[in-house]
Every structure is written in structure tokens, then in C-alpha cells.
Design brief:
Elements: E1 3-8, H1 16-31, E2 35-40, H2 52-60, H3 68-92, E3 97-100, E4 107-109, E5 118-121, H4 124-131, E6 135-139, E7 142-144, E8 150-152, H5 157-169, E9 173-178, E10 199-201, H6 202-210, H7 218-227, E11 231-235, E12 243-246, E13 263-276, H8 280-292, E14 298-302, E15 306-312, H9 316-325, E16 329-342, H10 352-362, E17 367-372, E18 376-382, H11 386-396, H12 401-404
Parallel strand pairs: 1-2, 1-9, 2-6, 3-6, 9-11, 10-12
Antiparallel strand pairs: 4-5, 7-8, 11-12, 13-15, 13-16, 14-15, 16-18, 17-18
Amino acid sequence: MNIIVQKFGGTSVSSSQKRMRVIEKARDAMARGYFPVLVVSAMGRSGEPYATDTLLSLVNKSAGGADPRDTDMLISCGEIISAVVMASELRGQGIDAHAVSGAQAGIYTDDTYGHAECVAMDPRYLRAMIERGVVPVVAGFQGRTAGGDTTTLGRGGSDTTASILGAGLGASLVEIYTDVDGILTADPRIVPDAALLREMSYEEVFQMADNGSRVIHPRAVDIAMQGGVPVVVRGTLSDDPGTHICARVPLHDDTKPNDVVTSIAHIAGRLQVTVEAVAPSREHRLLRNLAAAGVSIDLINIFPDTMVFTVSGDQREPLMRVLEEDGCRYRLRENCCKVSAVGVRMRGVPGVMARIMQALSGSGVTVLQTVDSHMTISCLVSGDEAETAIRSLHREFGLARHMRE
């Protein structure tokens, strides 16, 4: 049987009208010869009754705060509600369907509450349902520990659920439905002329997601890649075929010699940290202590007597605690943004960094720090100059829609 896993985000299931579009997508999958397995997120966005952030607000204001285990129980309810409502509406339209929790779907995780990792997937429950001709509507974002506790998979967890099910069920395809038509060359709120990318490699999409693109979660891409499951990113309210994510794309295209960058991604709200007069022995201790405190470091450069790195702005409190306890001399630069040029074809191509620096300098953008890999070059800039930097690089590498048609 050709199984297709279709994931729908919170906005896609937030109203009866939008849920009818979900039903149309399921019917379309059946017409294409697939048996659909649906994955749904909590309905709506923050402030709406069943959204994850709304549920979190019920306990975040309590005096003692919520236990992480209890919090995961609470916020898993949003997806359960979505699954029940969606299954009910499918049945109302003549499609036999049942709501399924992450635990029932066989998703087993570690006990890292709030950001659990899948350690195993038992497909027997879902396979039995599929063999009876019943469409499973799986609550995304959740699983269970070996001891039976409910866990959640972190932000973007419903994407991860879809990939876990795709790999575990041996699905022919995973479709990720969003409120845009696919993966774009940049954030369309900043670059209105961003182009839709028709085909990308797993590696490129992972780098885009890891560097700030929010269309699909990087863990979902990695799981799909490891499982060899093709992924398509599509729009719920559109019939556009979307972006196809495949194993590889040609490293070089002789017809497009300048086509080395695929997209521009960005992460705002970064905090740059400069630690001065650090001996090698203290460097190692500081890095260990930051890791123990749960502080994730990015864009790190180490010099003989100075260390420069960035962290997310919301990690300021544990960062400061470690720096103070270690007696470090340090400086902080607030409101920074990491802007990244991503492209598998830049591997081995000289001059890409020169073009980036020239484009940013020509636009009056000051580069505070850089780091590069085979397919990503990232620059740290002031948050006030971030949009200028993104538009400048998008223009430099000819990524606009009108330049690619």
C-alpha cells in the first residue's frame, strides 16, 4: 500500500472552512493512489483557545511554575483536540477516520520534557488501523516515554512527527502543508519578490531550517533524509505543487554559472559575547560550563586571548550566570541577527565570500562576525541592518522571482 503522511499546521486546521481544505487534500491523495495518514498541530496561534502558547499561559503565571512533566501533559492537549475535531469532520464527509495520540501512534521518546527525542517508533497500531481502511489522524508534537509519561518534541514538533511516521511506516511521501506555497528564497515579509524553489536537496533544506527558515523543522528534514522518505512542502490553500526535497541536486549547472546560492536565511534576536583574556584551560572550562547550563553556542571564533560567540537572546540569564561564576571579563552586543547564504553549489566555488562582503559593504551593512561551511556562509549583523543585509544578498545572487522566471 502506498502510504502518504500529510502534516497540517495550526493555521491549516483553525477553522471549519480551512479544515474542509484539509479534507480536500486527503481526498486528492486518495485519488493519486495513496492511503493518507494525517498529522495535525494545535489549532490556531497564540491567544486562540487551544494554541500551545495559550495552554502554556495557564501555568506560566502560577507562583511555583509548572513541573516540566506536567507541562508536557498540558500542552499535548492542543494537538489531541485538533486530531479529534479533524477526525470528526472527516467522518462527516464520508471518510472513516479516528484520532490517534502520539503514544498510540507508537512514538517512543527519551524523557527530555519539552524537547524530547524519538528513540523508537512502533508502527503496529497504525498499520492495523490502515489495514481496516481507517484514516489515522495523529496528534503531532508528542510521544511517550518507556514508562508511559507524555512528552513533547519541541517547537516544530509536528513536522518531526510526520517524518517519524513517514520513516516508520515506510511511506512513499511526506507532505508538509503550511500557509505558504513552498520554500522560498527568503522570508517574503522582508523580500516580497522571493521566489518559490521547486527542488532542493535534504542538506540545503536542513541548513536553511537550521539557520532560521521556519517552513520546516531541521529535525524533520534530518529524519526524512535518514529514512530516505521524499518530502514535499506545499500550501494548504493552494494547488501549487510546492517544493520537492530530494536526495541531491547537481553540484554545478553549466547553464547557470552564478547559481551558487539557493536562499537567504536569518535568525534574529542573537546576542554576541566577547570574552577577553581567556587562557586555553579556562576556555575549555567555560565551554563545558555553558553546555552544562544548557546554553547553545553559535558562530564561535577563538583567538589566542579572546573568544567570540553568539547565543540566542533568551539564553541571556544562564549565560550571565556562567560568565559571572567563572569571573570572566566580557562584553555583550545586543540585538544582532545571523544572516546566512545557503547553497549546495557553492562547494568549492571561489569568490562567494568576496561577493557577500562586497554586497553588504556596498549596502552600508557592517559585518560583526562570520563563519562558513561547504554550503553555508553566515554573517552576524546588527538587528537594525538585518533587513538591508537580507535584501542585499538576495539581490546579489539573483534570487528574486522576476530574475528566475
